[in-house]
Design brief:
Elements lengths: L1 E7 L2 E6 L10 E10 L2 H9 L1 E2 L2 E2 L9 E9 L11 E4 L2 E2 L5 H4 L10 E2 L13 E5 L3 E3 L6 H20 L6 E5 L3 H11 L8 E5 L3 H10 L3 E3 L6 H8 L4 E6 L4 H10 E9 L12 H6 L3 E4 L7 H10 L8 E6 L3 H10 L6 E5 L9 E2 L4
Parallel strand pairs: 12-13, 12-15, 13-14, 15-16, 16-17, 18-19
Antiparallel strand pairs: 1-2, 3-6, 3-10, 3-19, 4-5, 6-7, 7-11, 8-9, 18-20
Helix pairs in contact: 3-4, 3-9, 4-5
């Protein structure tokens, strides 16, 4: 089978690899149909690492994925050959203190797709996964929509971390794929229509997408003082800020924007090993900082919301590529070129087509 390997920083090659085999009775063999290019994949592509997780080239990446069941172990229940599934890329042990406490996303022995030393990446024609990580999707859900379940489930967990109430005022700093997914998740909340939502980004096309997804106000820090503009609008400050850019600048903006008792939800992954905060501002305003990791039991709900049309994840997909064009996809996303938001790699589709731009509707 063909697999996309990172062979060095900003270097990627498509190579042949042995076919994966079912190892456990509860495993399924999947044909991978679609994989989204995530910001964490880009960290590995552009720097070779995320914190202490360092690639030992060649390595495979990719975790936002959907597939079709090709074979199932004898203990598998609820899945059949030919079943199309959304995939939770987290393989939790189910036995450690974190798993037993309902925190599989912080499992002490977790294996995550595309993480060094853990599980292989999803940018491959076939993959073996535990059946418990596979969530059936109806025929009405496309492979791309099923792949978008992963980032949207992270967005649902992020929204839950903010604990928003009716009429909440919130900001999303960084309107890339995950920031826009957070925006969709917030608008889809029970009280979401009552929220006042501010969104920022450095790319105009992403601000346009944020407005289409329901942002009440958008701003570009290169063109205006976004903190001042938001404070003038929300005079007492914001209830919550979702930092989705992973930048020191946006972390500083978040602290300025929050009202006393407000919550900073750190969703973006910084490339730096350390970031800083003004301790006096945190203390005086008694601000709360909450972090986000993985999906925390939000995948099933994400599948339901995508399948019922409660959210439109199609609006985030702007470019499509085939497996042979994976490096082109990564380069485009890294450069934020052509107004790209989410680049989707069609792994099992025809491989004689060229990467195409998809206009948002």
């Amino acid at each position: 089978m063909r697999v996309a390997y990172l062979t060095g920083v900003r270097q990627l090659a498509i190579r042949d690899a042995p076919e994966p085999q079912l190892a456990n009775a509860d495993d399924v063999l999947l044909r991978i149909d679609a994989v989204g290019v995530c910001g964490s994949d880009l960290h590995y592509y552009t720097t070779g690492r995320i914190g202490f997780q360092v690639l030992n080239f060649p390595e495979t990446v990719g975790h936002e994925c959907a597939g079709t069941v090709l074979a199932a172990g004898p203990a598998v229940r609820g899945l059949r050959v030919g079943q199309r599934v959304a995939i939770d890329p987290l393989i939790a042990c189910g036995q450690c203190d974190q798993c037993l406490a309902g925190r599989e996303h912080t499992c002490r022995r977790q294996m995550f797709l595309g993480c060094p030393g853990q599980a292989p990446g999803a940018l491959a024609e076939r993959l073996v996964m535990p059946a418990r990580c596979c969530y059936p999707v109806p025929d009405s859900v496309t492979a791309e929509q099923a792949a978008m379940v992963e980032p949207f489930s992270v967005a649902l967990h992020s929204r839950n971390q903010a604990r928003l109430g009716p009429g909440a005022k919130l900001a999303i700093l960084g309107s890339g794929p995950i920031g826009l997914a957070v925006l969709l998740a917030c608008r889809a909340a029970k009280d979401g229509s009552s929220y006042r939502v501010y969104a920022t980004d450095l790319v105009e096309e992403r601000l346009q997408a944020a407005a289409q997804a329901g942002a009440d106000w958008t701003g570009n820090p290169r063109r205006e003082d976004v903190v001042r503009a938001m404070i003038q609008s929300a005079q007492l400050g914001l209830d919550a800020v979702f930092e989705c850019a992973g930048q020191q600048e946006t972390l500083d903006q978040a602290v300025e924007l929050l009202k006393p008792g407000g919550t900073l939800v750190m969703v973006g992954i910084p490339e730096l090993d350390r970031v800083s905060f003004d301790p006096h501002a945190l203390r005086r305003h008694e601000l709360e900082i909450r972090n986000v990791r993985r999906q925390n039991r939000c995948v099933a709900r994400a599948v339901e919301m995508v399948a019922t049309g409660a959210v439109n994840v199609d609006s985030l997909i702007t470019h499509r590529f085939n497996l042979s064009e994976t490096q082109r996809a990564f380069d485009l996303v890294a450069a934020r070129g052509e107004g790209v938001i989410k680049a989707m790699i069609e792994v099992s589709g025809r491989d004689d087509r060229q990467g195409v731009h998809v206009s948002r509707v």
